[in-house]
Amino acid sequence: MNRTETAFAAHPTAASKIAALLFSLVVSALLAPAGAATADATLWDDQSRSFWFDGPGLLLNDEERERLLGLDESGRAEWIERFLSRDPVSETPENELAVGIQKRKRLVQQTFVSLLDDRAKLLFLHGPPTQRQPVDCDQTFRPIEIWTYGGTITPRKSEEGSLSLVVYQPKPGSPFRLWLPLDSKRVLYAQEMEYWLEQFHELRSQITGRRFDLSLCRWTRAVDRVTGIKGLFDIQDDRPSNESIARWLEPPRDLGAWARRAIATPELNFAKELDIDSVEVAFPKREGQRMTTQLTLQLPAGVGLEAFTEGEGDPEYRVGVEAQIEMNGQPFDQFRVRFKVEAQTEKPIALVLDRPLRPDSQALFRLRVRDEISGATAVLTQGVDVPGEPDPTSEIPISEDVVTAIIEDLEVSRIAGSDGIILVPPTSDVVLGLWRAETLVTGDRISKVEFIVDEKTQLTKSRAPFDAELRLAQYPQEQTIRVEGYDDAGELVAADELLINQQRGELRVQISEPRRGVMASGQVDVRAQVVVPEERRVVEVTFAVNDTVQETRDKPPWSATVDVVDAPSEQQLNYLTVKAKLDDGTLAEDVRFLNAPNFMEEVEVDLIELYTTVVSRSNSIVQGLEESAFTVLEDGRRQTVSRFELVDDLALSIGVTIDTSGSMLESLGEARRSAKGFLESILTPRDRSFAVSFSNRPALLMTRTSDVAAVTQALDGLRASGSTSLYDAVVTSLYYFRGVKGRRALVLLSDGEDTASSLSYREALEYAKRSGVAIYSIGLNIGRLQAGVRGKLQELSKETGGRSYFINNADELRAVYGQIEKELRSQYLLAYTSDRPPGEGEKEFRKVEVKVKGGAKARTISGYYP
Predict the structure, then answer these.
(1) How many CB atoms lie within 10 A of CB 211?
(2) Which of 8, 9, 310, 677 is the most buried (most CB within 10 A)?
(3) Model confidence over 548-594: pLDDT tens digits?
(4) Which of 397, 403, 386 minimizes the C-alpha distance to 42?
């Protein structure tokens, strides 16, 4: 240890921190990638820019970099061609350098977007590590990873001969950096933990017990071992030097040896390449201090996108674009856009991206374009010279079929005027129990506000603040909340309303009033429910009697009063039709007879669908059974199966609900990774998924979508804190399945007893039984003595046809998710029509049982409500 390092260890003063920072800046400058050295390379031609920014530039020494920067365009192209034509291993017929560069470039492109991240540099220079271990201990460390070459590492020991490095993220959203001893150990710790460790070191003689970080994170000793520093300041004699670690980001000293290693890089399962015909840039307008920068990526006709057909809809392409913008060698912005377009092969397809950038600047776009159906991918970089003034007349030559991203906005109905009232929407898509309705009132006239729930006044307030606690339905259902503001004379001044717990799913209209079989004439009140698909909105709902439209609504509530005259004869029947039209022209309707004679029964036949898993006595999945092996019983009576099939090809809707309470602190990182791997593995383009987290209350992370990447990315930002609202989370998650038919499953992960829900366990269980959604519950570190918690998770799964799992630590999650995936891919569908007469036991729970021949056991829902 040199004197400077000894001073840092003994005296963690402000001066030593500044000195360490200065050293760090110097080394960072020396290790900066070629792209960070100058902004001029941003505007080079495509081949030169790719060489400089996408990896090969890391192979150049300082002299070569300076020489390349000083050349003009033709000189650069010639110099790069000569460099790539080198054959440092001349005794073989293959050019190992050229092949190795391509292999490493593809490896980096598949893993990271930008070489600003030191992990990407390590991959290009040294290939994939033997082990890459994320350390997910949010309250102990910043985001860090341990990369090990030549062996493996565990929390307690390392394999002999292995070499481990630490990479860390200095702040959220920034690239990961390779940790150096001169950075000091403190940069790896979370801010609060750094403070507590300083106190521990200063008061070590007065404190008994272990360091705080050792108690909170099981990987702390491994980090101590890799860095050679225990805690903040206890530097070990055998700790690695700055030089030995910094060398990992330096250009190779022997290019031939590097080429031999690079060409031996394991072949990954690379997706086929997607062709991008051209990239055009325009600057149509300036808004304030930002210039709108428009990139148009044109895919040639017959580009090879794979079409996907959902249900009875038209074939469509789905293309996702991930982008990272760099300015002056630093990250500036990153975003993700998804495009959908009607499938066709005759014309080119243009993907248009708009982003605000600084005027008079240069930016580098790193783009990853991926066909979500085939997996074909294109990775490219594009330099942009942003002008100081816009060019509104600029036109980009693109095809007539331009794909545009669709953004769905939540709209709130408002009555205009200088005196007004606005009802603030809830922060959650699903609202339970009591909801505090808050209003914003403008002007001086409003002195009284009425709060109306489903057209019934629930509360009136005569003085500010005009907020109120409103009681909603016992279980979440679509409800209309309206506020009306009156003046002192009782005159209506302004009003506002919104729809909560809106139903989303496959388009469907259902008449709820008048009830089926009711004789109705004269003034008849009609109410309907409309289930709306994601990304669509209702244009109008019409109410017609005998095909004559009487009322039209363009916003909820979907209710009206219609005139029904007595039918002149039994041969002429009055019938009510409610029809919904969406913004894309799609229609759906429901019909109800209003004066059907006694001898005529209006029958609505519903198939009861039982998604069933069959297991042997050893609890292994049983496949290949025929219909004759099954018997279906409803309330003990045998039913006739009208549909039987395996469900391999049927669409799946799956929700992932993760406990993020404080007790999940050490396990949350592995829980995130396992859930992401599960979704990526099981979902196909026809499937949909969503994600929910819960601590003090449930929170929707990503709404139901076929874009699995959007769901997995939504899991990245999870942090552990707060209490546990398990029962509210169950009901909230199940409500996101509303309007969805077919295969549905909820995967629920929790590690403890409910402490914060507004609903009781019995209410959550009852709602789960009504939902028809299979719940796969995972209890993490819930001991056998916690019989109450285990029993509730087991009952939730058993009653809904799922399965419960109990594991001791998060490392077992991958295996559990693998079992769930296997089960969901191996189910049988048995459908039947109940033999109970219409109207009999309409509100009673009907118990269902499936029996299998040969001693196997079938798991399905325990019953249903008609």
Answers:
(1) 20
(2) 8
(3) 899 998 877 788 999 888 755 555 577 889 999 888 778 888 888 77
(4) 386
